[in-house]
């Protein structure tokens, strides 16, 4: 039992270290909220939206853009939709809208990047906003993004506010943001002095067209599954400044009502995040088990209860800012060990699929 007491004590110490890290990835210091009082100058901007079977959400996305500023340039690439996405898009008024029929997917490309590559050919403005088809910008958000760029940032990205209506969404989606911020600490990613950490969230990226073309645009990323962070890495490597943050003004309407939908979303790239390395998968399993599951077991044993409670309390405290950002009850931070177990299982599922020849599966396409 002495060895387990030592393991529990180490877990508590690791959580204290996480809370005291100088870059504090668990806090929400990088936030950009809408500025409805500011008028957005969009003369130098085009919005580029890849869309595959997005008829259910594309109208809301485009209507929100039309409400930002009259006559905004928008390019929608219809990536082989069979649900009338293009027709729905054309029905939205108030935009300078171009709908591009997507060409068949060439070998070696991911679908989203091929759609963006085709759309980029229609961009003639100095700035482009890469926006997912399910993302709604609240009034004043476009002005806030452009104001942030004017501070000297060449790429400004916002991690969209994810849906938290169902119980599964409340349990797992804030933690998705939480884990992302620990893998890509925003404070480090935003520092021009640190070249080895770069991050972006693909749902909303405002980037200078020059930077996009200089880094090879989407052709250089053609098979990347974590394309947003790869793009940020390429842009930052050229000396451009990148910034990523959170906002209540960039809202995803993608529904994740059941566990299977969330599972497939995470499993799509989880093993990619580990570089398809069995060694890193083993290290990840060990660390998640040690930091998230050992405290639960320790809290149930009288001899180690103090260490277990300390570790569990620290990990709960680390998730609280994200839960509060999502305006949920603080009680949703308590089951973080359960949430971590789900994410570990999703990661193993991702590895299992890869070992069986499926690198990723998304939007009806399988990437081997």
From TrEMBL:
Signal peptide: none annotated. The keyword Transmembrane applies. The keyword Transmembrane helix applies. InterPro entries: Glyco_trans_2_hopen-assoc_HpnB (IPR017832), Nucleotide-diphossugar_trans (IPR029044). The chain crosses the membrane at residues 6-23, 279-299, 332-355. Pfam families: Glyco_tranf_2_3. Keywords: Membrane, Transmembrane, Transmembrane helix. Gene3D superfamilies: Spore Coat Polysaccharide Biosynthesis Protein SpsA, Chain A. This is Hopene-associated glycosyltransferase HpnB. It comes from Methylomarinovum caldicuralii. The lineage of its organism: Bacteria, Pseudomonadati, Pseudomonadota, Gammaproteobacteria, Methylococcales.
């Amino acid at each position: 039992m002495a060895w387990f007491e030592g393991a529990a004590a180490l877990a508590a110490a690791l959580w204290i270290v996480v809370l005291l890290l100088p870059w504090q990835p668990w806090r929400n210091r990088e936030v950009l909220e809408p500025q409805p009082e500011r008028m957005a100058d969009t003369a130098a901007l085009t919005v580029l939206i890849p869309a595959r079977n997005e008829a259910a959400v594309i109208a809301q996305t485009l209507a929100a853009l039309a409400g930002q500023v009259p006559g905004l340039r928008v390019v929608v690439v219809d990536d082989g939709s069979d649900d009338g996405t293009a027709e729905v898009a054309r029905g939205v008024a108030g935009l300078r809208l171009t709908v591009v029929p997507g060409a068949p997917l060439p070998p070696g490309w991911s679908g989203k990047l091929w759609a963006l590559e085709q759309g980029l050919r229609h961009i003639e403005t100095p700035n482009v906003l890469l926006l997912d088809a399910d993302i709604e910008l609240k009034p004043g958000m476009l002005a806030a993004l452009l104001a942030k760029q004017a501070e000297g940032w060449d790429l400004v990205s916002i991690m969209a506010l994810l849906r938290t209506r169902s119980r599964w969404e409340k349990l797992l989606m804030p933690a998705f943001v939480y884990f992302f911020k620990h893998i890509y600490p925003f404070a480090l990613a935003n520092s021009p002095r640190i070249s080895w950490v770069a991050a972006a969230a693909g749902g909303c990226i405002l980037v200078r067209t020059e930077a996009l073309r200089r880094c090879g645009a989407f052709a250089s990323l053609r098979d990347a599954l974590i394309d947003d962070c790869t793009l940020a890495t390429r842009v930052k490597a050229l000396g451009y400044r990148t910034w990523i943050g959170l906002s209540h003004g960039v809202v995803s309407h993608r529904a994740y009502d059941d566990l299977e939908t969330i599972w497939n979303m995470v499993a799509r790239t989880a093993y990619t995040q580990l570089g398809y390395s069995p060694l890193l998968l083993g290290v990840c399993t060990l660390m998640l088990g040690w930091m998230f599951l050992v405290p639960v077991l320790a809290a149930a044993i009288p001899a180690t209860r103090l260490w277990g409670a300390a570790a569990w309390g620290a990990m709960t405290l680390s998730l609280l800012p994200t839960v509060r950002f999502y305006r949920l009850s603080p009680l949703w931070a308590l089951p973080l060990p359960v949430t971590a177990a789900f994410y570990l299982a999703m990661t193993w599922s991702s590895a299992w699929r890869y070992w069986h020849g499926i690198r990723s599966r998304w939007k009806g396409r399988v990437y081997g």
